[in-house]
User: Fold this.
Amino acid sequence: MKRFRRLRTSEAMRSFVRENRVTVEDLIYPMFVAEGENLKNPVPSMPNIYQYSLDRMEEELERVAEAGISAILLFGIPAHKDEKGSGAYDPEGITQRAIRMIKEKYPSLLVIADVCLCEYTSHGHCGLVHGEEILNDETLPLLAQMALTMAQAGADIVAPSDMMDGRVGAIREALDANGFCNVPILSYSAKYASGYYGPFRDAAGSAPHFGDRKSYQMDPANGREAMREILDDLDEGADMVIVKPALAYLDILKSARENVSVPIIAYNVSGEYSMVKAAAANGWIDEKRIVMENMVGMKRAGADRIITYHALDVAEWIKKKD
Ligand code: PBG
Ligand code: ZN
Assistant:
């Protein structure tokens, strides 16, 4: 008799034939560190996500360690922004200080430093600006300097998210020239100009003050182009790549998985998180089920690791396991 259902008869049987599993090792938790004191600012569009000042960050880091999460992705929010994003590559900048503190107290926690100017520029763009134009080549040395100061502060991995062309090569060169040939680059290679970043821009205060990011981030309608971006970043020296956002882009994740052998990381972005949280708060969906389904969907499409704001919850759910 033909019976697909034979392998679905009990949880033990289903578990026995399960192809993909989400584990705590899969999870990377994004964190926001803000300049100032005694801050724990809620992000209104992202329930349970906060900006912490350095002196308050430990309470959250403690939860991360407790959950068994092995990596965080760190974003800094400076008190002052300027045209050139000076705070981004200041060795005493908020992010550099945070990295030093975190690595001192949690040496085995992997700190991934996001490399981009938009949280630090007064205009909110990811590169230098001339009139209405976002400059490419002029931005590269600043990104390289930013990555270098992050590495000097102790970042384990640097992750450029700016989408300027040539930034991976520029960063690799700066790291190698200064004794950091062992610091890997995790490149946001296939990063789309997405409406799903809306809540993040609240969290990081990084919305562009004019125009949009469509001249540097990818067009959501383009699939094949993602492979060109990924292959070019690998050519320039990227060690790992990110596909972002994740859920509306699982086809990109899958074709990346089929075409390259480096680790691929899915970024389950802010808007994807906020939509689930909002529907769950209304009682319209079962939050745990939906989140776990999203997680395993990313794994099934080919993600090696997942950056997600749900990380603490997911770690907890996996631990309890029912
Ligand atoms: C900054 C950056 C963004 C995100 C990560 N790094 C926003 C953007 O490009 O506007 C988005 C993360 C998220 O939405 O969770 N370059
Ligand atoms: Zn940016």
